[in-house]
Specification:
With 166 residues, the chain is of the alpha/beta class. It has helices spanning 14-25, 32-36, 47-58, 70-76, 90-100, 108-119, 130-139, 150-164, and strands spanning 3-8, 29-31, 63-66, 82-86, 144-147.
Length: 166
C-alpha cells in the first residue's frame, strides 16, 4: 500500500481514513481540497496549477490521496497501488458533515453548497459522482476495497495494522 487513493462522497470519511492510513503506513496524507481550492475556499485554483501540485505529490514513492475528484484520480491512476471507495449512504454522509461542520475557513453559504453537492452524488453524471466513482473502481486492476459502512472501514484499518506490526 505505497500509493493509496481514497474516493467517496462528501462526508464519507475520506480525510479521516487517509490520516489513519498515514499513521499506520508512515506515509504522507494529501487532502485534495487543499490542492484544488485556494486558501479559505476563496475559489478554485487554476487547473494547471492544481495538476502540477498533484503531479508533484504523485511523483513521491508513497502517499495517501483523498478526495471526491475523479479527474485527479484519472491523472494519477497509473501510479495508484491501492484504491479505496467509501460508499456510505447519503444520509450517513450528511450526518457526518453536520457533525463535523464547515472546515478550512469556508462560509455558511459554502457549507450549504457542500450539503447540496453531497445530496446530489447519485444524480451527477461526472467523475465526481457515484457513477464516476463506480466506473473508476471497476476499471482499477490492483488491490481495491469498497467500504459501505464505518464497521468495514475500521475492519480494514485493523487488517492493515495487524499486517504492519510484527
Amino acid at each position: 500500500m505505497d500509493r493509496v487513493f481514497v474516493i467517496g462522497n462528501g462526508g464519507s470519511g475520506k480525510t479521516w481514513l487517509a490520516e489513519k492510513l498515514s499513521e499506520e503506513l508512515s506515509t504522507r496524507s494529501v487532502h485534495l481540497d487543499d490542492l484544488h481550492w485556494l486558501p479559505n475556499f476563496a475559489g478554485e485554483r487554476p487547473r494547471s496549477e492544481r495538476d502540477r501540485l498533484v503531479d508533484d505529490v504523485a511523483d513521491s514513492p508513497s502517499w495517501n490521496m483523498e478526495g471526491i475528484y475523479g479527474s485527479v484520480l484519472m491523472q494519477v491512476f497509473a501510479r495508484v497501488t491501492t484504491l479505496i471507495w467509501l460508499d456510505l449512504s447519503i444520509d450517513e454522509c450528511l450526518s457526518n458533515l453536520m457533525d463535523r461542520g464547515q472546515t478550512g475557513g469556508g462560509t455558511e453559504e459554502q457549507f450549504e453548497e457542500l450539503l447540496d453537492y453531497t445530496r446530489a452524488y447519485h444524480d451527477r453524471q461526472n467523475l465526481n459522482s457515484y457513477e464516476g466513482h463506480r466506473r473508476l473502481f471497476a476499471e482499477f486492476g490492483l488491490p481495491k476495497f469498497k467500504l459501505s459502512n464505518r464497521a468495514d472501514t475500521l475492519a480494514l484499518l485493523l487488517r492493515i495494522k495487524e499486517g504492519h506490526s510484527g
